[in-house]
Here is the input.
Amino acid sequence: MDKKYILAVPNFSDGRREEVIEAVAGTINGREGVKLVSCEPEHDFNRTVLTIIGEPEPLKEALLDMAAKSYELIDMNEQKGTHPRIGAQDTIPLFPLANIELDEVKELAEEIGNELFQNHKVPIYFSGENAKTAEKKGISFIRKGQYEGLKELLENSEHPDHEARKPDLSNDGKLSSKSGATIVSADMEGLTAYNVFLATEDVSIAKQIAKAVRGPSGGYSTIRAVGIKFPERDGVVVSMNLFDCSATPMYRAFELVKLEAQKYGVAVTGSELVGPVKLDYLLNNLNHYLGLQGLRKEQILEHHLMY
Here is the structure.
């Protein structure tokens, strides 16, 4: 019988303290049935994204231990960062990877959320396929205002959004002062983090292009984007989260950024994937740019080493 595999892409709210990053990521290593594929600290955002593949039960135990370590080492009263966040262990998103149905992944996410609350009393929001309300299906609704703003809102019972914004699991409807809250979810597709670099130091141009690319302001509904400056490198960046690279392939996002950049007389100098990506998402780009017809995964030699 083929083994079942789940993809988890959790993030925790520290991307600067090496000892914390190593301690949290270290809870994943050395476990049978679980593999830490990548650890991506982001200094400016002050968060770290892990990519983990595992069989359901070993993965569940690894994620519970990971979150416990985040709760132990990260204090949200002191944490500052530019990326939206509401908790020490901010998110635990799960996705079917091989030989497993979405309903099974959804059930596992439910178990993880309940056990984290029972064991640590940290409030839990369920999102994605586990969302308890339509608004909570997207994490941007849950994260609105970030830790500081959400904490203040939940402490004001007279706020018009108080009931809608409350955690799904909590003792008093408020955030944990130290650990905030954790968002747990299951979805069919995970996001792909993708950056496109521009040959200008004018971050306002990157912001205008991001506005044209992202769904809510006229672009693709499956893309969220921001324009930012990475201090460690020349130029500015259109930083995108691609939520469905089947419906909206990377090449389409890349070409739209190039087209918009032409308006400002700015060249695109390259692009970057942040973390791992599915083979299918690379093949559809290969098909597009080379005009390949009928390319199958089975034609990739390394594919046969995976199964």
In short: The two ends are 13 Å apart (CA to CA). The CA atoms of residues 196 and 254 lie 7 Å apart. The first strand starts at residue 5 and ends at 8. The chain is about 35% helix and 25% strand.
